[in-house]
Design goal:
alpha+beta; Fructose-1,6-Bisphosphatase, Chain A, domain 1; D-Maltodextrin-Binding Protein, domain 2; 2 domains; eight-stranded mixed sheet; five-stranded mixed sheet; 8 helices; 29% helix
Protein backbone atom coordinates (compact mmCIF):
# COMPACT_ATOMS: atom_id res chain seq x y z
CA UNK A 1 0.00 0.00 0.00
CA UNK A 2 1.47 3.38 -0.93
CA UNK A 3 1.73 6.27 1.47
CA UNK A 4 -0.86 8.53 -0.14
CA UNK A 5 -3.49 5.82 0.09
CA UNK A 6 -2.56 4.91 3.65
CA UNK A 7 -3.25 8.32 5.20
CA UNK A 8 -6.72 8.97 3.82
CA UNK A 9 -8.33 5.63 4.48
CA UNK A 10 -9.90 4.41 7.70
CA UNK A 11 -7.52 1.76 8.96
CA UNK A 12 -9.16 -1.66 8.92
CA UNK A 13 -9.09 -2.94 12.50
CA UNK A 14 -9.86 -6.46 13.58
CA UNK A 15 -12.15 -7.23 16.50
CA UNK A 16 -9.19 -7.61 18.85
CA UNK A 17 -7.94 -4.05 18.32
CA UNK A 18 -11.10 -2.12 17.38
CA UNK A 19 -11.97 -1.24 21.00
CA UNK A 20 -9.36 -1.04 23.75
CA UNK A 21 -10.20 -0.15 27.36
CA UNK A 22 -13.46 1.34 26.16
CA UNK A 23 -11.77 3.44 23.47
CA UNK A 24 -12.68 3.09 19.79
CA UNK A 25 -9.40 3.14 17.90
CA UNK A 26 -11.12 4.01 14.61
CA UNK A 27 -12.91 6.95 16.23
CA UNK A 28 -9.64 8.34 17.59
CA UNK A 29 -8.01 7.92 14.17
CA UNK A 30 -10.87 9.84 12.59
CA UNK A 31 -10.45 12.58 15.21
CA UNK A 32 -6.78 12.87 14.27
CA UNK A 33 -7.72 13.11 10.59
CA UNK A 34 -9.89 16.12 11.45
CA UNK A 35 -7.09 17.56 13.59
CA UNK A 36 -4.65 17.09 10.69
CA UNK A 37 -6.97 18.91 8.31
CA UNK A 38 -7.26 21.76 10.81
CA UNK A 39 -3.48 22.02 11.20
CA UNK A 40 -2.93 21.97 7.44
CA UNK A 41 -5.13 25.04 7.07
CA UNK A 42 -2.40 26.96 8.92
CA UNK A 43 0.66 25.18 7.51
CA UNK A 44 3.03 27.58 5.80
CA UNK A 45 1.04 30.70 6.68
CA UNK A 46 1.21 31.11 10.45
CA UNK A 47 3.05 33.57 12.69
CA UNK A 48 4.49 32.06 15.88
CA UNK A 49 4.58 33.58 19.35
CA UNK A 50 7.01 32.82 22.15
CA UNK A 51 5.84 31.06 25.31
CA UNK A 52 7.38 31.52 28.74
CA UNK A 53 9.19 28.22 28.18
CA UNK A 54 10.98 29.89 25.24
CA UNK A 55 9.30 27.68 22.67
CA UNK A 56 6.86 28.49 19.88
CA UNK A 57 3.07 28.46 20.01
CA UNK A 58 0.79 29.22 17.07
CA UNK A 59 -2.91 29.61 16.39
CA UNK A 60 -2.71 26.13 14.86
CA UNK A 61 -1.54 24.61 18.17
CA UNK A 62 -4.46 26.22 19.98
CA UNK A 63 -7.06 25.34 17.34
CA UNK A 64 -6.03 21.67 17.24
CA UNK A 65 -5.88 21.40 21.02
CA UNK A 66 -9.33 22.98 21.47
CA UNK A 67 -10.78 20.57 18.90
CA UNK A 68 -9.33 17.51 20.64
CA UNK A 69 -10.26 18.67 24.14
CA UNK A 70 -13.85 19.29 23.06
CA UNK A 71 -14.08 15.82 21.49
CA UNK A 72 -12.55 14.04 24.50
CA UNK A 73 -14.74 15.94 26.95
CA UNK A 74 -17.81 14.84 25.02
CA UNK A 75 -16.86 11.19 24.46
CA UNK A 76 -14.91 10.48 27.67
CA UNK A 77 -16.23 13.02 30.21
CA UNK A 78 -14.88 11.16 33.25
CA UNK A 79 -11.29 11.08 32.00
CA UNK A 80 -8.66 13.63 32.91
CA UNK A 81 -6.73 15.67 30.35
CA UNK A 82 -3.15 16.97 30.34
CA UNK A 83 -2.33 19.17 27.35
CA UNK A 84 0.67 21.21 26.29
CA UNK A 85 -0.87 24.58 25.56
CA UNK A 86 -2.35 26.97 28.14
CA UNK A 87 -1.11 24.68 30.95
CA UNK A 88 -4.32 22.69 30.61
CA UNK A 89 -4.93 20.03 33.24
CA UNK A 90 -8.33 18.51 34.00
CA UNK A 91 -8.51 15.92 36.77
CA UNK A 92 -10.47 12.70 36.17
CA UNK A 93 -13.91 12.49 37.74
CA UNK A 94 -13.14 8.98 38.94
CA UNK A 95 -10.17 6.67 38.63
CA UNK A 96 -6.77 7.59 37.22
CA UNK A 97 -7.26 7.82 33.45
CA UNK A 98 -5.72 10.80 31.67
CA UNK A 99 -5.40 11.76 28.03
CA UNK A 100 -2.17 13.56 27.10
CA UNK A 101 -2.35 15.92 24.13
CA UNK A 102 0.44 17.44 22.06
CA UNK A 103 -1.51 19.36 19.40
CA UNK A 104 1.52 20.01 17.20
CA UNK A 105 4.72 18.27 18.18
CA UNK A 106 7.43 19.96 16.16
CA UNK A 107 6.01 23.48 16.11
CA UNK A 108 9.30 24.99 14.91
CA UNK A 109 9.30 22.62 11.91
CA UNK A 110 5.62 23.44 11.32
CA UNK A 111 6.37 27.17 11.34
CA UNK A 112 9.33 26.66 9.00
CA UNK A 113 7.28 24.71 6.47
CA UNK A 114 9.17 21.47 7.15
CA UNK A 115 7.41 18.09 7.07
CA UNK A 116 8.32 16.40 10.37
CA UNK A 117 5.57 17.39 12.80
CA UNK A 118 2.28 15.94 13.93
CA UNK A 119 -0.39 15.52 16.58
CA UNK A 120 0.22 13.16 19.50
CA UNK A 121 -2.38 11.64 21.79
CA UNK A 122 -2.06 9.02 24.52
CA UNK A 123 -4.36 7.43 27.08
CA UNK A 124 -2.77 6.83 30.47
CA UNK A 125 -3.98 4.64 33.30
CA UNK A 126 -2.11 4.84 36.60
CA UNK A 127 0.43 6.97 34.72
CA UNK A 128 1.19 4.21 32.22
CA UNK A 129 0.29 4.57 28.51
CA UNK A 130 -2.30 2.02 27.35
CA UNK A 131 -3.15 3.55 23.95
CA UNK A 132 -1.11 5.92 21.80
CA UNK A 133 -1.57 7.76 18.52
CA UNK A 134 0.52 10.05 16.30
CA UNK A 135 -0.60 11.57 13.02
CA UNK A 136 1.93 13.23 10.70
CA UNK A 137 -0.11 14.91 7.93
CA UNK A 138 2.67 15.99 5.55
CA UNK A 139 4.37 12.59 5.44
CA UNK A 140 0.92 10.93 5.49
CA UNK A 141 1.77 8.58 8.34
CA UNK A 142 -0.47 7.42 11.17
CA UNK A 143 1.14 5.57 14.07
CA UNK A 144 -0.79 3.86 16.84
CA UNK A 145 -0.16 1.38 19.62
CA UNK A 146 -2.23 -0.54 22.16
CA UNK A 147 -0.75 -2.01 25.32
CA UNK A 148 -0.24 -5.73 24.81
CA UNK A 149 -1.38 -5.61 21.16
CA UNK A 150 1.50 -4.07 19.25
CA UNK A 151 2.50 -0.83 17.55
CA UNK A 152 1.63 0.03 13.96
CA UNK A 153 2.17 2.49 11.13
CA UNK A 154 -1.12 2.24 9.31
CA UNK A 155 -1.66 -1.51 9.11
CA UNK A 156 2.05 -2.40 9.26
CA UNK A 157 3.24 -3.79 12.59
CA UNK A 158 6.38 -2.10 13.89
CA UNK A 159 9.59 -3.63 15.20
CA UNK A 160 12.73 -1.93 16.44
CA UNK A 161 15.89 -2.29 14.38
CA UNK A 162 18.20 -5.15 15.40
CA UNK A 163 21.54 -3.87 16.74
CA UNK A 164 23.98 -2.92 13.98
CA UNK A 165 27.76 -2.44 13.93
CA UNK A 166 28.71 0.87 15.62
CA UNK A 167 29.95 2.44 12.39
CA UNK A 168 26.46 2.06 10.89
CA UNK A 169 24.51 3.37 13.85
CA UNK A 170 22.30 6.41 13.47
CA UNK A 171 20.85 8.37 16.36
CA UNK A 172 18.11 11.00 16.43
CA UNK A 173 18.41 13.89 18.88
CA UNK A 174 15.16 15.36 20.19
CA UNK A 175 16.75 18.65 21.23
CA UNK A 176 18.59 20.42 18.46
CA UNK A 177 21.04 22.08 20.89
CA UNK A 178 22.20 18.81 22.44
CA UNK A 179 25.53 19.10 20.65
CA UNK A 180 26.40 21.95 23.02
CA UNK A 181 26.32 19.47 25.90
CA UNK A 182 28.74 17.10 24.12
CA UNK A 183 26.24 14.28 24.53
CA UNK A 184 28.08 11.80 22.31
CA UNK A 185 31.72 11.08 22.94
CA UNK A 186 34.38 11.25 20.25
CA UNK A 187 34.24 7.42 20.13
CA UNK A 188 30.82 7.52 18.45
CA UNK A 189 31.38 6.85 14.72
CA UNK A 190 27.79 6.95 13.49
CA UNK A 191 25.46 9.65 12.21
CA UNK A 192 23.40 12.15 14.22
CA UNK A 193 20.19 13.83 13.10
CA UNK A 194 17.55 16.09 14.63
CA UNK A 195 14.27 16.14 12.73
CA UNK A 196 12.25 18.42 15.00
CA UNK A 197 9.57 16.20 16.58
CA UNK A 198 10.16 14.12 19.70
CA UNK A 199 7.17 11.85 19.10
CA UNK A 200 8.25 11.30 15.49
CA UNK A 201 11.74 10.36 16.69
CA UNK A 202 10.28 7.76 19.05
CA UNK A 203 8.02 6.41 16.30
CA UNK A 204 10.97 6.17 13.92
CA UNK A 205 12.94 4.23 16.53
CA UNK A 206 9.93 1.94 17.04
CA UNK A 207 9.72 1.40 13.27
CA UNK A 208 13.42 0.57 12.94
CA UNK A 209 14.23 3.71 10.96
CA UNK A 210 17.09 4.53 13.34
CA UNK A 211 19.09 2.73 16.01
CA UNK A 212 18.21 5.00 18.90
CA UNK A 213 16.89 8.39 19.91
CA UNK A 214 18.17 10.65 22.67
CA UNK A 215 15.64 12.86 24.43
CA UNK A 216 16.04 15.78 26.78
CA UNK A 217 14.01 18.84 27.79
CA UNK A 218 10.85 16.81 27.18
CA UNK A 219 7.45 16.83 28.89
CA UNK A 220 4.85 14.13 29.49
CA UNK A 221 2.91 14.89 26.28
CA UNK A 222 6.15 14.61 24.26
CA UNK A 223 6.97 11.18 25.64
CA UNK A 224 3.71 9.33 26.37
CA UNK A 225 2.70 8.34 22.80
CA UNK A 226 6.18 7.28 21.70
CA UNK A 227 6.90 5.43 24.94
CA UNK A 228 4.13 2.94 24.20
CA UNK A 229 5.16 2.74 20.53
CA UNK A 230 8.66 1.72 21.60
CA UNK A 231 7.53 -0.79 24.21
CA UNK A 232 5.08 -2.47 21.84
CA UNK A 233 7.70 -2.73 19.09
CA UNK A 234 10.23 -4.49 21.31
CA UNK A 235 12.18 -1.42 22.40
CA UNK A 236 12.68 0.46 25.62
CA UNK A 237 13.15 4.00 26.90
CA UNK A 238 15.51 4.55 29.82
CA UNK A 239 17.15 7.40 31.67
CA UNK A 240 20.88 7.76 31.27
CA UNK A 241 21.41 6.10 34.68
CA UNK A 242 19.59 2.98 33.46
CA UNK A 243 16.29 3.57 35.25
CA UNK A 244 13.04 2.97 33.39
CA UNK A 245 11.19 6.15 32.39
CA UNK A 246 8.25 7.04 34.63
CA UNK A 247 5.62 9.42 33.28
CA UNK A 248 4.65 10.24 36.86
CA UNK A 249 8.01 12.05 37.13
CA UNK A 250 6.79 14.44 34.41
CA UNK A 251 3.38 15.41 35.77
CA UNK A 252 4.50 18.86 36.90
CA UNK A 253 7.89 19.34 35.25
CA UNK A 254 10.06 18.22 32.39
CA UNK A 255 11.93 14.94 32.44
CA UNK A 256 14.69 15.04 35.06
CA UNK A 257 17.43 13.53 32.87
CA UNK A 258 18.52 12.49 29.40
CA UNK A 259 16.64 9.49 27.96
CA UNK A 260 17.76 6.85 25.47
CA UNK A 261 15.24 4.88 23.42
CA UNK A 262 15.59 2.02 20.95
CA UNK A 263 16.36 -1.69 20.81
CA UNK A 264 17.45 -2.79 24.33
CA UNK A 265 20.91 -3.79 23.09
CA UNK A 266 21.31 -0.50 21.22
CA UNK A 267 20.34 1.39 24.38
CA UNK A 268 23.04 -0.44 26.34
CA UNK A 269 25.56 0.21 23.56
CA UNK A 270 24.87 3.95 23.56
CA UNK A 271 25.46 4.05 27.32
CA UNK A 272 29.15 3.53 26.53
CA UNK A 273 29.17 6.30 23.91
CA UNK A 274 27.64 9.08 25.99
CA UNK A 275 29.74 11.91 27.33
CA UNK A 276 27.41 14.39 29.03
CA UNK A 277 29.00 17.47 30.60
Amino acid sequence: MDRSARSSEIIQLNAETSVHHGVSVADVMNLLNVAAATAMEYFGCVTPRWKDSMSYVTDADLAVQHLIVKWLTHHYPDDGIIAEEEDLRKEPVTGSRYWSIDPIDGTAAFVGGLPIWGTGLALLEDYEPIAAFFSAPVTRDQYWALKGKGAYRGEQRLSVRPPTPPHRESVLLSYSKLHRQKVLSSKYPGKVRSLGSTIAHLCYAAAGNCDATLLTRVSLWDVAPGLLMLRESGGELRYINGDQVSLKDMLTCRAPALMIGGHPEAVRCFDTLLSVD
